[in-house]
Amino acid sequence: MKWDKKDIPQELIKELAAKYDCDLLSASILARRGIIQGEHIQYYLEADPRYLRNPFELSGMEDAVDRILAAKEEGEKVLIFGDRDVDGITSAALVSGALTRLGMDVGWRLPMGDEPYGLSLKAVEEFAANAGTLIITVDCGISNLAEVRRANELGVDVIITDHHNPQDELPPALTIVNPKQADSTYRFRDLAGCGVAYKLVSALRFALKSELYGHSVCLLNTRPANDAYIIEIAKMRNLAVIDSLTETVVPGMVRIAETRIPAFLEGQQIFVWDGPLQKLVLGKIFGKDVEVQMLDIALEIGKEIPQTAGKSLLRLRELSRIARYSGKELSELDVFINLFTSFVQRREHHFTDEDTADLQLASLGTIADIMPLQDENRIIVRCGLAALQGTPRPGLQDLLFKLGLAGRHIGTVDISWQLGPAINAAGRMGSPDKAAALLLEQDPVQRDRLATELISMNEERKKLGNDSWTVVEPQAAESLKTYDGKLVLAYGENIYRGITGIMANRLVSRFKVPALVVSFGDAILTGSLRSAQGYDLRSLLEQCADLFIDWGGHNYAAGFSLERTKWEPFLTRLQNAARTIELGIGEDEETVVIDAELPHAYLTPDIFKVIDRFEPYGEGNEPLLFMARRLKITDLNFMGKTEAKHVKLTLDAGKYKWPAVYWQAADKVKREFDKGDMVDLVFKVTRNNWLNGDTPQLIITDLQRSKPQ
Q1: CA-CA distance, 516 to 585, in Å (whole number)?
Q2: Which residues make Cβ contacts (< 8 Å) with residue 481, sequence separation at least 6?
Q3: Is the four-CA dihedral 210, 90, 193, 76 of positive or negative sign?
Q4: Residue 422 in contact with residue 453, Cβ under 8 Å?
Q5: What is the average per-residue pLDDT within 499-510?
Q6: Given its phi and psi angles, is residue 68 left (phi above 0), alpha (psi -120 to 50 degrees) or beta?
Q7: Contact call for residues 504 and 517 (beta carbons, < 8 A)
Q8: Could you tell me where the DSSP H helices lie in 588-697?
Q9: How is residue 115 annotated by DSSP?
Q10: Full set of structural domains in the chain with CATH
């Protein structure tokens, strides 16, 4: 195994530490991971929901909110339609819960049993027959062209909120909220379905609380520039900047009517910082007879944010925490925009207990759907997990207790391997309604019953998976020859539909190539694909698209349904498509990329301050991998239920002795290391929660005897 620790200039590390107020070790890890721009660093160093992007920056959001408010006003019947996985279940619970709290007539529906993914004609027609008038899809809908057309025919409006890749033709919905739309200007594409649902609910909360909703306002500021003045104006709607204007004017050289300013400000409420100064400067520029109706908001902001009181925008720029993360030097107007946004959010109490409870659901779906833990997904998950540890929302609290996670430190691994699968099991076993009901149920007795059912279904799902693996694994191994070693395929009636995704994931881990698992129904086949080595599944699916009933998903995880009569043509097409697959080229020797080398003095439990700072870990943000030299093995024991395959060590780092686990390393004892040896190692630092404890331990990736000094 090759150890790779990138050399980073010490000047860069010191610069990052000083500019972003972090320790040198954290700065070195950021630099080694290539995270050196402030706009990216903020999502590693901050945990405040104020750093989340404005939901109204998503196209279609205001139209969606307006339609929901109209439905509330008219007492319309609303249906939330989601997906059967964790992302879809949490999305449905999040939106339906929010609308229920508003007193709306809302119901929810998820695909049950063998029903296909996405909005169905049956669901649309039954809802319309029951006098329903508005459907909101969550984590689905972007590929449901026929279903949305049918809804339109029946007089039912459809709002689509989704995060899957859109196809060329979009459904004729009332509005679509999806960061992956081709014309989207939203600066982060990788929200989960529940991330988009959370944005919808956040936007709805803003609309209900703020007198600014649906109205544009202008923030104006003037500043000197040599012999001229620069007049800057930002037009904001729902706290998002929608337009801006900059005019450079020499005093006395032009009348205000000859500039673009009057047209830009027409009909707008105008806010300024330090009204007397702004009035004086505008009079100097355009003459004292010029009157601009503006409201000085500095005093009001100072009451809400005391540290701003009496300070100029120039001075506040120097003090601004947000400013340090900007990739450019912020203007005074930029500072004003940030202050105005923070002021409104604080004054109107935007981040309440309801918001915190919603973030718990959004964090679960984001982790379970394997979304990149970058950008604002990091804030969503970090805030959600903190709330989950502090005050879990009903339903989740019941599950945590039954899983033995209550009162413990909860990280992304706990969600991925315990809480997420327990929720997901309901959908995989054909009863996603049980999980959604648990998340929405108010009666503690009913919640206990539902939580018990989910645990039971998860155990059944595990058994089905183990039984199916004995069929899937050898069939996939045989298929490697058919697909030139670029793809594996397993299929048949004996593969349960609800576990095709799990089986495909396991096949990728086993064979390191893209995997396809297909469950045979009586007339319809359902397939799940998972990628490997960076291969984009869309290029394969598009070559077979005309054969599918429907298909979609993400670049690296997707699915489809197919009529059984088209199976043979599909196999022929798949074999041809497989020849076009280009996989990443692997190295002969596995390389581990090291984040930092730790001196012995750093090897104490205090290291968790750094480790926790880089949480959450997962897709796009792997756990920190450290290296240390010359630790002495003071104790060594073998581990294993039936066979001693693993090794438990105690390593002396001087001030602190570390318990360590080295998986699948029993055969290396005596040959590569032994008790009493001085060793160099690559490792992760984790918490061992065995028997409700919280013991620090090392998980060893590689180990070798130290060279003599």
Answers
A1: 21
A2: none
A3: negative
A4: no
A5: 89
A6: alpha
A7: yes
A8: 608-613
A9: P
A10: 46-210+352-460 (3.90.1640.30), 216-347 (3.30.420), 483-578 (3.10.310.30), 590-705 (2.40.50.460)
Q: How far apart are CA 41 and CA 299, in angstroms?
A: 32
- The CA angle 68-167-190, to the nearest 5 degrees, is 65
> Which of 57-71, 227-241, 389-403, 578-592 comes out lowest in average pLDDT?
578-592
175-177 sheet: strands from edge to edge:
105-109, 77-81, 134-138, 157-161, 175-177
Task: For the beta carbon of residue 41, count every other beta carbon within 10 angstroms.
Answer: 20
Q: In whole angstroms, how large is the CA radius of gyration of the chain?
A: 29
Cα–Cα nearest to 562, from 576, 573, 546, 575? 546
Q: What is the pLDDT of residue 323?
A: 82
Beta carbons of 411 and 615 less than 8 angstroms apart: yes
Average predicted confidence (pLDDT) for the chain: 93
CB 632 within 8 A of CB 684: no
The strand order across the sheet containing 488-492 reads 488-492, 515-520, 524-530, 557-563, 548-553
pTM: 0.88
Q: What is the DSSP letter of 213?
A: T
In which order are the strands placed within the sheet that holds 216-225? 240-249, 228-237, 216-225, 269-272, 295-296
Structure tokens at 680: 């160099």
Q: 169 in helix, strand or coil?
A: coil
Task: For residue 448, give the amino acid letter.
Answer: D
